[in-house]
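Suppose you are handed a protein chain with no further information: no name, no annotation, nothing but its sequence. What can you learn? This example shows the usual starting point.
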Amino acid sequence: MIRYLATERGLSEAYQLSVRQTLDALAGWLKRRGGTLRDLGTEDLAAFLGQRKRDGLKAASLRITTVHLKIFFRWLAAKGRLEMDPAEPLLAPRPEKDLPETLHAVEIDRLLESIDPAKPLGRRDLAILELFYGSGLRLSELCQARLEMMDFTGGFLRVTGKGGKTRIVRVGSKALAAIDGYLRNERPSLVTRRTSSHLFISVRGTALSPDRVRQLVKERAAAAGIESRMYPHLLRHSFATHLLEGGADLRVIQELLGHADISTTQIYTHVDRQRLKSVHHKFHPRA
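A reasonable first move is to predict its three-dimensional structure. Written in structure tokens, the prediction is:
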């Protein structure tokens, strides 16, 4: 069977090893029950998957295990070693969606208020964090932002997102003020002859790299005493979650985030339900 995977289906050695591990686990389970492959029915395979779940397998791993069983028993049936394929009716568990982490609005305020614009790079870093949180930008979108993409009069920024798609994002008054302060009072001192039109630049006058932005976000969070694991996308998640909590329509949030599919945005509704559940549990006398 493993040879079949390697030759006829051209699957990688890693995948072949993964299938072998599933079959070894099935063999061990069968031995403990005192059964054979010919005795197995669909309910038995479902019981095996249930045991694997109790052993700690997550939904994604259970889906893979189910596929392994389907491949194996389909092969046995095709070879005439079984009269029927007991794995054919099995349904793979739906993949779990991890809820995005977010910061509380109080933590956002603490983060932004901890930055002193009068100190070196204070204006730049404040503008970066205000833009991340105020507009929900991706890290790549912020790093690629250029001066000519800014519309200060209208309060908009043109960004290039995933798949090279361009969209217009709203820039709030706080972010606009922070960016204006940076452009007037700090960016000119960072410019060199080789400086491009990138909005945010380093002390050497070059465009900020994604790694450097990740680093400065962590540094600013640590300085503000925020113990949460901090990264740029956390501010994007917080942007979306706080909009939803404030009553914004999901379709509007989808457009602001640049999601091609509304199902991607709907993960934030789970966050909101979690918040509602916790509030109900905390304050309702019959919760």
